[in-house]
Amino acid sequence: MAKEKVRIGYVGCGVMGRVYMKAAQAIPPAVSEAVTDLNLDLARAAADEFRIAKVYATAEELFRDPAIDAVVLALPTAFRTPLALQALQAGKHVLTEKPVAMHADEVKQLIQARGSLKVGCCSARLRCQDSAEAVASVVASGQLGEIRVLHSRWQTAVKPKPDVPPPLWRLSKSVNGGGNLANLGSYALDYMLGIVNWRLRPEHVFARTWSVPDLFQEHVAPGTDAESLTTAMITFEGGPVLMLEQGEFAVGRQETVWRITGTHGSLSFRILPSKQTIVLDTYRDGAQSEEVVWEGEENFATMQQRLLADFVQAIVLDQEPKTNLEQAYVVRRVMDAIYESATLGHSVPYEMNSIVGGITP
Question: Out of 14, 123, 137, 230, which residue is the most buried by the measure of CB atoms under 10 Å away?
Fold first, then answer.
């Protein structure tokens, strides 16, 4: 029997936790049931703001509440897998922030513990847009021919030194499982692999990473040790290649480029919520033609509502969320291979280690 309501508990009441609580207000089947945070004052304030009845002192207490169907884990990566395993043990569905885990082996643990429960990964966030559906539709139509190159360049320009340093987790190996690649690159990888319906199977990865330049050390938290810039080439079975450039602290104009090139055409688009025009270039009747296949304006709030709604719908209708654990494993394994290649200084094979139930992206 399908569930009519999904009662949600939130672990983490910081910025992102509150984003989920606000999004839930626009999703009829979602009921915000309880919150918890290491900072109980923060948890109480969030409960008051969003009229949530229950405040728990610990995540373990929240997991023991039989009224809660699902939990949202909105806290740094290093703490999420142990909590996700506890939540699954308690019979709760789980929506976890990105990156999905500290490394691919943790994702394997989650797959083994999941059973029939739903686990959604927030790296799918940028695909919860109409523009992403338009891109996926063009790719599926075959108008591009055989895919040869997927290009993702997301370089954020340096900003003035902040009055308060950003949180350490943003560029921390021990807290976030990586730096800018893990934080924002997980979005780019999920998007590019997801819009081709997870059909591309990685073979090899060649990458370089760079840490925060000395010039910008005052822009980051003390103890920052992870990369701020990554370049990678990921090859896939059959010949396609993904060219990835992911970074911040770029001196100069911010530049973002997303494009898919095939034998019969190319598609240019943006993956970030914005005002944009998606352009398809093809060669017809002896000449190149340009066609606008989608245009519009999107925002973060709508995208976030759709992300949470997708997870809730997966529970209600007993279907897979937009990015499930098998797909999230591929994203995390690619990131692990990027870090491995950058450390070793040469290309490395992508190895799909055996998992209970197998991997079927």
Answer: 123
Residue 51 gets the label, from left (phi > 0), alpha (psi -120 to 50) or beta, of: left
Looking up residue 22, the CATH number of its domain turns out to be: 3.40.50.720
CA distance 245 to 240: 17
Would you list the DSSP string of 208-276? EEEE--GGGGGGS-TT--SEEEEEEEEEETTS-EEEEEEEEEESSS-EEEEEEEESSEEEEE--SSSEE
Residues 6+ positions from 325 with CB-CB distance below 8 Å: 100, 107, 110, 111, 114, 119, 121
Tell me the pLDDT tens digit for each residue of 183-205.
999 999 999 999 999 999 999 99
* Residue whose tokens read 């190319």: 266
Count how many domains the chain has: 2
- For residue 303, give the nearest of 23, 72, 94 by alpha carbon: 23
pTM over 0.85: yes
Which of 61-74 are b and which e, b meaning 16 or more Cβ less than 10 Å from the residue's Cβ?
ebbebeebbbbbbb
- Relative to beta strand 255-262, strand 265-269 is antiparallel
How many C-beta atoms lie closer than 10 Å to residue 156's C-beta?
16
Burial (CB < 10 A; 0-12, 13-18, 19+), residue 174, is middle
Alpha carbons 204 and 108: distance in angstroms, whole number: 21
Residues recorded for the chain:
361
Question: What token pair was written down for 358?
Answer: 């197998």
**Which pLDDT does position 345 carry in this prediction?**
97
269 falls within a domain: yes
Q: Tokens 């949470």 appear where? A: 308
Q: How far apart are CA 127 and CA 125, in angstroms?
A: 6
How far out from the chain centre does Cα 270 lie?
Answer: 16
Residue 224 CA: distances (Å) to CA of 175, 291, 330: 10, 45, 26
**Tokens 């920052």 correspond to what residue?**
224
Q: Are residues 145 and 249 in the same domain?
A: yes
**pLDDT, averaged in runs of 10, over the chain (361 residues):** 84 97 97 98 98 98 98 97 98 98 97 98 98 98 97 95 92 95 98 97 97 95 96 97 96 90 97 97 90 98 98 97 98 97 96 48 46
Domain span at residue 39 reads 6-124+308-322
